[in-house]
């Protein structure tokens, strides 16, 4: 058994799954808000036959972006419910490293899954479609590296936090 599995009597372990769901949702919100809306680098289906070059294509992408945001909203809601339920179950001594680590792990996991599926497997969009097509792959790979580094940093923080003393 690991140190995370055996809290002292009466102490509840930090619900890492809550932080992971919250981190995945926040990762999705970052992608949707910053990359889709603020920077306008891409939308959900800009490489899948719906480039943002007409009002109709923009309407389709806006709908798909909204559905994407609805999904990230659900991830955040699940994380909040798990965190709330765990917090109400009794005495807990949670460490900040557990929360920050699980948020980073969730955010990084989101980047890895979304990047692999949407950018590489399905090719429905790429991280930065405002640059030449020849450089899209570098942005997509950078997105995966960023996700992997966040996941590793998060996992490291979770493991280093151990259990409450």
Q: Would you mind describing this structure in some detail?
A:
With 165 residues, the chain is mainly α. The chain has one domain (13-161). Helix content is 65%, strand content 0%. The protein contains 4 helices and no strands. The chain starts with 15 loop residues before the first helix and ends with a helix. The relative contact order is 0.21. The model has no long low-confidence stretch (mean pLDDT 91).
Mean pLDDT: 91
| Shape, principal axes of CA atoms | elongated
Distance between the termini: 17 Å
Major beta sheet summary: none
Q: Which strand-content bin applies to the residues?
A: under 5%
| Number of separate strands | 0
Radius of gyration: 18 Å
Give the uncertain stretches in residue-range form: none
Helix proportion range = 55-70%
Q: Helix-strand pattern, N to C?
A: HHHH
The assigned structural class equals: mainly alpha
Structural domains: how many: 1
Number of helices: 4
Protein name: Membrane protein
Transmembrane segments: 20-39, 67-87, 99-117, 137-158
InterPro entries: DUF2243_membrane
Pfam families: DUF2243 (PF10002)
In short:
Pfam families: DUF2243. The chain is an all-alpha fold and 165 residues long. The chain has one domain (13-161).
Core attributes:
mainly alpha, 4 helices, 165 residues, elongated
Which helices and strands, and how do they pair?
Blueprint: H1 16-38, H2 55-87, H3 96-121, H4 136-161
Keywords: Membrane, Transmembrane, Transmembrane helix
InterPro entries: DUF2243_membrane (IPR018719)
Transmembrane segments: 20-39, 67-87, 99-117, 137-158
């Amino acid at each position: 058994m690991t140190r995370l599995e055996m809290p002292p009597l009466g102490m509840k372990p930090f619900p890492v799954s809550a932080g992971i769901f919250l981190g995945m949702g926040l990762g999705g919100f970052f992608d949707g808000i910053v990359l889709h809306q603020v920077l306008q680098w891409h939308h959900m289906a800009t490489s899948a036959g719906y480039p943002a070059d007409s009002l109709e294509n923009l309407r389709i992408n806006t709908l798909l972006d909204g559905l994407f945001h609805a999904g990230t909203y659900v991830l955040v809601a699940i994380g909040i419910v798990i965190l709330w339920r765990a917090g109400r179950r009794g005495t807990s001594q949670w460490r900040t490293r557990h929360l920050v680590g699980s948020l980073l792990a969730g955010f990084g996991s989101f980047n890895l899954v979304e990047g692999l599926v949407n950018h590489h497997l399905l090719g429905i969009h790429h991280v930065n479609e405002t640059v030449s097509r020849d450089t899209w792959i570098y942005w997509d790979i950078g997105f995966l590296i960023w996700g992997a580094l966040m996941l590793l940093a998060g996992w490291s923080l979770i493991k280093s936090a151990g259990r409450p003393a």
